[in-house]
Amino acid sequence: MSDKITIAVSKGRIFDEALPLLAKIDVIPKDDPQNSRKLILETNKNNVQILVIRATDVPTYVERGAAELGIAGKDVLLEYQGDGFYEPIDLGIAKCKMMLAGLKGVKKEITRPRIATKYTNITQNYFSNFGKQVEIIKLYGSMELAPILGLADQIVDLVDTGKTLEANGLVPYERIADISSRLIVNKASMKLKSTAIKSFIEKLSDVIEVAE
Ligand code: AMP
Question: Structure pTM?
Answer without folding.
Answer: 0.94
